[in-house]
# Entry
Amino acid sequence: MRAVLAQIGAFLTPRIRQTLFFVVMISSVLSLSAIKLWSRLMLPPSMADVRALAEKAPIVFRGRVVQISPYQISLYPYMTDTHGADSFATIDVDRLYRGSLRGDATVHFKRPSPEFMDGHNCIDFQPDTYWLVFAVEKDGQKDGQLELFDDCQGALAISPLIGPRLKDFDWRAQMEADFLAGLHDDAAANRIVSIQRLGGLKLPSSQDALQRVIDRGDKDEANWAVYAALRTGDVSVLPRVKEILSAGDRNPPEPEIALELRNVSVPEAVPGLIAILTTAAGEITRSSVLTALGANIKDPRAVPILADQLSAADESSRYLALVGLRNIAHDSACIPSDTANEQNLESRIRRCKLWWEEKGKFQSWGKD
# Structure
């Protein structure tokens, strides 16, 4: 993987190389094949943005799959492989969040193929499974037949448990109540998907419940709750993040947590992010923290650790440290070049190091 990046990198600017690094590392860590990467990069359901999907889809509901029907009678009944076949899922709807439906929902989909996945047709509806569905009326016809809003994230597995119906209806609050009910599911897998869905809903009001999972849940559930809490904006979990990622960022939910650090943007997170960076064992973690510190928050307290990262072993960290110092210190010595010349980049890094040793480290970078 790194050899391929090195060959490609000779033709790309540092900024593009950094973007490519994240794409390839995400793909590698989350076990996506090269075919999937270049055709359509799809993140796993655990990372789905539930709120964004629900805001965009005209029809959103949850329910149980009653049956799966073929789109039409097969001309070759002796063939048992149904992968890629057009099918219909009849879903017994137990909660309608947005849009309108008349009775049960009939959703058109294509059966996924485990042998050939190209980032499309990922939903594997099965009878007696429960799903949160984001849908649109098929071909604009109001005949009750639906299409998935997205063929890979248009349906997300959920717990069968459902919360109380809220009197003051708001789909976000109602969805949160239903996901919270799933935290009490007897099946551990259903509890974990409920935690993941709460994270994808991104409501600060979920933080107390997620903290209880962190405090009382088993290790796997607690780690997923740390990820979900980060997605709701709860940076109080950063000490737990440091503990989780100190050994690496390869096994779920480590890469998910590491990638979410890229989205942290509040100044109160700076001490926690710096602490994570000092013990981070994985490149995804280091790159994500450097992005948060140098591109999102831009807090002067991060300057000393960014200067240290100018000597990091990996080019990604060195480049992001240079960008961060440019954004915060605003010294001309730390402005990265836009040319696709690696020697140019290293020359800029050397100039920035010299600035740090001669001037930068003698300045006060703490905030009052």
